[in-house]
Design a protein that fits this description.
single chain, alpha+beta, Alpha-Beta Plaits, 4-stranded antiparallel β-sheet, DUF389, membrane, transmembrane
Length: about 325
C-alpha cells in the first residue's frame, strides 16, 4: 500500500475528505485540524491501495491542493489491518502490477539530473572499466558496472517516452550526452598518463581476452540489453532493489565506454568503434525494453492493464484475494 499525507487549507479539507471517503481503495483516513504551520491548514492522512493510487492522486490534484497545500506519497512496507485488506480487494487490478505514475515520474526525474555527483560516479565507473580492461580483470569491470549510474537517465527516458513527457526526455538525454563524453575524456587523460608510466601496454590490452565480450557486438548484445532493461524497469516500479543490482552487472554500457577510450589511446580503432557500437546497442536496448514494460503495465483509466486482464482470463488471483 501507499501512505498519503496531505496538507490542506482549512476551507478545502472537507472536500478532500469527501473525495477520499468515496474511493474504496482508501482506508485509515485521519484528519488533524489546524495542525499544519507551513503552509497553514489541516493534516489529512490515509493509506491507499497501490492500484488505486493513480485515481486518488488525480482526484486530490484536481482540488488544486498542489498549489495551496502539499501532497506526500510514500510506500508502506507492511500493513496489518483487515480494513487495508478490504481496500486492496476493492481496488481494481493487482498491487504488484500497478504503476503509480506520479511516484515513478518523481523518482526518475531525480535520477536523470545532470549534476556533479552523477558525472563523478560515471567518471569513476569509466576509470574502473579502463583499469579492468588494461589489467584483464573481469572483477574490476563488474565493479565498474555496479558503480555506473547510467540506468537512472535511461529509465527516465523510457518513462518520458511512454508518458509523452518531452521535458523529462530532454533532461535524460542531456544527462547522458554530457556525462558520458566528460567521463570518457577524463578517462582518456588518465589512460595516457598510465601509458606514460608503463602501467598499460599495447600487448596487455590486445591480449586481454577475458574481456573480449565488452567490444564484441553480436545478437546477444541486444538480447541482454533488452532483458536487462526489462528487469531494471520491473525492479524500479516494484521497488525490487536486489534485482536492480543484477541489472547493473549484466550490461556493458560503462565498460564499453572505458574500453573504447583505452583502445583509442593505443591505436586499436576497430576495437574502439566496436566498443562504441556495443555502448549504443546497450543504451538503446535498455530504453526500448523499459518502454515495452511500461506499456504492458496498467495505465490511467485502465487499472488492470494487459497483464491484469490476462491474469483474470486465466483465473489467477492475488495473495490478498486468496
Amino acid at each position: 500500500m501507499l501512505h498519503l499525507r496531505v496538507i490542506s487549507p482549512t476551507e478545502q479539507t472537507d472536500a478532500l475528505v469527501r473525495v477520499l471517503e468515496q474511493d474504496a481503495g482508501v482506508t485509515h483516513l485521519t484528519v488533524a485540524r489546524g495542525i499544519a504551520l507551513e503552509p497553514p491548514g489541516d493534516l489529512v492522512q490515509a493509506d491507499v491501495a497501490r492500484e488505486a493510487g493513480n485515481k486518488v492522486l488525480a482526484d486530490v490534484k484536481a482540488l488544486g491542493i498542489v498549489h495551496t497545500g502539499g501532497i506526500t506519497l510514500e510506500p508502506v512496507t507492511a500493513v496489518l489491518s483487515d480494513a487495508a485488506d478490504r481496500a486492496v480487494r476493492a481496488a481494481p487490478g493487482d498491487p504488484s502490477d500497478a504503476v503509480v505514475w506520479e511516484q515513478l515520474l518523481k523518482e526518475t526525474h531525480e535520477e536523470s539530473s545532470l549534476n556533479a555527483t552523477f558525472v563523478a560516479f560515471l567518471t569513476i565507473a569509466c576509470l574502473l572499466a579502463s583499469i579492468g580492461v588494461a589489467t584483464n580483470s573481469p572483477v574490476t569491470i563488474v565493479g565498474a558496472m555496479v558503480v555506473g549510474p547510467e540506468f537512472g537517465p535511461l529509465a527516465a527516458l523510457s518513462v518520458a517516452l511512454v508518458r509523452r513527457n518531452w521535458r523529462l526526455a530532454r533532461r535524460s538525454i542531456l544527462a547522458l550526452a554530457v556525462a558520458f563524453p566528460v567521463a570518457m575524456v577524463i578517462t582518456l587523460g588518465a589512460t595516457l598518463v598510465w601509458e606514460q608510466l608503463g602501467w598499460i601496454t599495447t600487448e596487455g590490452v590486445i591480449d586481454a581476452h577475458d574481456v573480449d565480450f565488452i567490444y564484441e557486438v553480436g545478437p546477444f548484445s541486444l538480447v541482454v540489453a533488452l532483458l536487462a532493461g526489462a528487469a531494471g524497469m520491473l525492479s524500479l516500479v516494484t521497488a525490487k532493489s536486489a534485482a536492480l543490482i543484477g541489472v547493473f552487472i549484466s550490461v556493458t554500457t560503462v565498460p564499453a565506454a572505458g574500453y573504447a577510450v583505452v583502445a583509442a589511446t593505443i591505436g586499436q580503432w576497430h576495437r574502439a568503434f566496436e566498443s562504441t557500437g556495443q555502448l549504443a546497442v546497450n543504451l538503446v536496448g535498455i530504453v526500448v525494453a523499459g518502454v515495452i514494460v511500461l506499456e504492458l503495465r496498467p495505465r490511467a483509466g485502465d487499472t488492470a492493464g494487459p497483464l491484469g486482464r490476462f491474469k483474470r482470463a486465466i483465473g489467477m488471483r492475488s495473495a490478498v484475494e486468496r
